[in-house]
Structure formats: structure tokens, C-alpha cells
């Protein structure tokens, strides 16, 4: 597994070792021991999520407030997405900064974003399926969002024309109006 640092120290990109042969491929998509060694502390995932989206669907930017904050390990198993993590920890030197990476069934990359980050993605392929592990359970009453095109974050979303979003995501607050994370 290759680990790629990003401009935000806590956000990492993992590239698993792929074993290909005439039958196809095999790779370990997750190893608790390896992951803990890389992150430097024990990370306990309690929930797996799976979502499917059509081209142009943008989901996010979402996070959960403490005590239900979620770290996420995200991978794309069908198609391709532009996946984004935003640092929403007001005490962080990288507050308001973002990392974007193309995750795809082809590149098999994974994005790790710990608690304190908002998550969102834009679907680039006709259809895409995302699998992601979370370090806390879904808690709708603690679910929060930030508008996808917040001018202080300035995420450089790929230009695909009109995005498809849930009604909830069309009216998310600005970062500076959102509920404090830390
Ligand atoms: C997130 C979640 C949702 N749900 C139910 C609630 C709704 O009835 C339905 C769709 O939920 P929602 O529209 O919030 O799904 P997304 O817009 O994909 O939300 C996710 O999008 C961004 C990218 C994330 O990182 C989060 O995991 C999450 O916020 O699934 C559950 O039952 N459990 C869950 O963990």
C-alpha cells in the first residue's frame, strides 16, 4: 500500500498493492493493523456505507457534529468521482482548506479524512458507486452541511454543467454560518 500525503497533513491518499494475473486482480482493500500503523493511532470503523450516483450528482458537503463526528475512508468501486475533504476545525492552521482527488474503480485510490472534515463528491462517470467506512454511526440530528460552492473554500469542482443535488444540499449554509465543529 502506497501512502500519498496531501496539503492537509491529516488527509491521506492510499494506493493499495494490486495483484493481477490472467484471472483478474486481487488486493487487500483494508487492513486494520496497517491502517493504524500509518495513521499513528487506533482507528475504529463502525459502519460501512455504499452509495450510487449518476453523472453530475454532487453529494455534500456533509459532516456530523461531535460526539458523532465521523472519520471516513472512501473508495470508488464503479466509475469515477472527484472526492473532496474540507478542514472545518476552526482551531486548525488549515481551516477552510480543501483536498480533492479523483477516486475510481480504475485507480483504486482511497481517501482518508478524519473527524473534523466535511466530505463531498461529484460524480464524473455515467454512474459511480462509493464505499466508505465511518468511525461513528449515522446520527441525523448531528448531521450538518456546508454549501458546495462556498466562496471562502473555493473548491475547484470539475465543470460538468448543472449539478444534480438533493434539496437539502442546495440550501446548505456557508462555512462561516455553519455549526461550529471545534
Ligand atoms: C448518511 C446516511 C444516510 N442514511 C439515510 C438517510 C436518508 O434517508 C438516505 C440518504 O441520506 P443522504 O441524502 O444524507 O445521503 P448522502 O447525501 O449521500 O449523504 C452522505 O453524503 C456525504 C458524501 C457523506 O460523506 C455522508 O456519509 C453523508 O452525509 O440514507 C442512513 O440511513 N445512514 C447514513 O449513514
TrEMBL record:
Sorted alphabetically, which InterPro entries does this protein's record hold? Answer: RmlC-like
Associated pathway? Carbohydrate biosynthesis; dTDP-L-rhamnose biosynthesis
Q: What are the entry keywords?
A: Isomerase
Asked if the Swiss-Prot or TrEMBL record annotates the protein with the keyword Isomerase, the reply is: yes
The record's section on Pfam families has:
dTDP_sugar_isom (PF00908)
- Cite the GO molecular-function annotations of the record: dTDP-4-dehydrorhamnose 3,5-epimerase activity
Q: Which CDD domains does this one have?
A: cupin_RmlC
Which reaction is the catalytic activity of this chain? dTDP-4-dehydro-6-deoxy-alpha-D-glucose = dTDP-4-dehydro-beta-L-rhamnose
Q: What is its EC number?
A: 5.1.3.13
Quaternary structure annotation from Swiss-Prot or TrEMBL: Homodimer.
**Main role?**
Catalyzes the epimerization of the C3' and C5'positions of dTDP-6-deoxy-D-xylo-4-hexulose, forming dTDP-6-deoxy-L-lyxo-4-hexulose.
Family listed: Belongs to the dTDP-4-dehydrorhamnose 3,5-epimerase family.
- The protein in question is named dTDP-4-dehydrorhamnose 3,5-epimerase
UniProt organism field: Limnobaculum allomyrinae
Question: Lineage of the native species?
Answer: Bacteria, Pseudomonadati, Pseudomonadota, Gammaproteobacteria, Enterobacterales
Amino acid at each position: 500500500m502506497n501512502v500519498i500525503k496531501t496539503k492537509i497533513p491529516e488527509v491521506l491518499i492510499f494506493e493499495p498493492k494490486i495483484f493481477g494475473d490472467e484471472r483478474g486482480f486481487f488486493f487487500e482493500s483494508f487492513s486494520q493493523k496497517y491502517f493504524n500503523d500509518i495513521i499513528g493511532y487506533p482507528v475504529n470503523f463502525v459502519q460501512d456505507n455504499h452509495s450510487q450516483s449518476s453523472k453530475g450528482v454532487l453529494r455534500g458537503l456533509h459532516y456530523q457534529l461531535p460526539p458523532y463526528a465521523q472519520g471516513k475512508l472512501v473508495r470508488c468501486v464503479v466509475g469515477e468521482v472527484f472526492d473532496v475533504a474540507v478542514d472545518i476545525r476552526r482551531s486548525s492552521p488549515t481551516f477552510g482548506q480543501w483536498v480533492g482527488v479523483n477516486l475510481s474503480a480504475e485507480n483504486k485510490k482511497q481517501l482518508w479524512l478524519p473527524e473534523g472534515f466535511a466530505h463531498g463528491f461529484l460524480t464524473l462517470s455515467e454512474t459511480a458507486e462509493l464505499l466508505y467506512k465511518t468511525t461513528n454511526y449515522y446520527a441525523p440530528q448531528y448531521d450538518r452541511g456546508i454549501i458546495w460552492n462556498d466562496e471562502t473554500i473555493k473548491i475547484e469542482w470539475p465543470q460538468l454543467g448543472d449539478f444534480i443535488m438533493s434539496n437539502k444540499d442546495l440550501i446548505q449554509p456557508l462555512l462561516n454560518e455553519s455549526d461550529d465543529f471545534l
